[in-house]
Amino acid sequence: LAKTTQPISMDSYEGQEVNITCSHNNIATNDYITWYQQFPSQGPRFIIQGYKTKVTNEVASLFIPADRKSSTLSLPRVSLSDTAVYYCLVGEAAGNKLTFGGGTRVLVKP
Amino acid sequence: GAVVSQHPSWVICKSGTSVKIECRSLDFQATTMFWYRQFPKQSLMLMATSNEGSKATYEQGVEKDKFLINHASLTLSTLTVTSAHPEDSSFYICSASGGIFNTEAFFGQGTRLTVV
């Protein structure tokens, strides 16, 4: 399983865009990149998944360069409720054995 | 998305007793379920992978006789912490995937276990 590296923490303010970059230099051909959000004392919640280029849904965008050795989660116009830990995971879609790295603790300030 | 439900949300038990935690996929058939443990301020640590109808595969360092996992149906997996001790106190989380939801995993809300 490819290892991921993310910043430990990030601070932002309401209304700003937050970009979290994850490094996964050993990503395999069959691996997808998935991001999860976790609030205290709750299970992780799926945010977005991608394989290459750009993926966008109603809550976030995921940018993946051609070499796929990194990815960037973009959260547009964050609010206080976006304060959480964000995890980047890399692995095959089938079977979904997910190994969590340290995650990025995002604090959104008023 | 799919819904995965864990029960109970929290439990307090006495040292030496056993506790069972249930993980149910409510609207899809989960061929694979995973159990994680999370200590305060730490990331999730995978404990075991369970496939319906077969024995669970445990991660290195996880005692299979202490953490009994049963995945008897496509919608239910259980984790039993046997002879619990205070150091087993943690947040236990399950995830499930399968069927049309085979490209992403859905997580339960977690179970806070406190052993006193």
Describe the protein:
The complex is a heterodimer of chains A (110) and B (116). Chain A is an all-beta fold and 110 residues long. Helices cover 0% and strands 49% of the residues of chain A. Chain A contains no helices and nine strands. Chain A has strands at residues 9-13, 18-23, 31-38, 45-50, 53-56, 61-64, 70-75, 84-92, 104-109. A five-stranded mixed sheet of chain A has the order 1-9-8-3-4, with no helix packed on it. In chain A, strands 2-7-6-5 form a four-stranded antiparallel sheet, with no helix packed on it. In chain A, β3 and β4 (45-50) form a beta hairpin. The termini of chain A are far apart. The model of chain A has no long low-confidence stretch (mean pLDDT 92). By secondary structure, chain B is mainly β. Helix content of chain B is 0%, strand content 56%. Chain B has strands spanning 4-7, 10-13, 19-25, 32-38, 45-51, 57-58, 67-73, 76-81, 90-98, 101-107, 111-115. In chain B, the strands form two sheets. In chain B, strands 2, 4, 5, 6, 9, 10 and 11 form a seven-stranded mixed sheet that branches. In chain B, strands 1-3-8-7 form a four-stranded antiparallel sheet, with no helix packed on it. In chain B, a hairpin with a 2-residue loop joins β9 and β10. The radius of gyration of chain B is 13 Å and the shape is globular. Chain B starts with a strand and ends with a strand. The mean pLDDT of chain B is 91. Chain A binds chain B through residues 32, 34, 36, 41-46, 49, 87, 93-103, and chain B through 1, 4, 6, 32, 34, 36, 43-46, 49, 91, 93-95, 97, 102-110, 112.
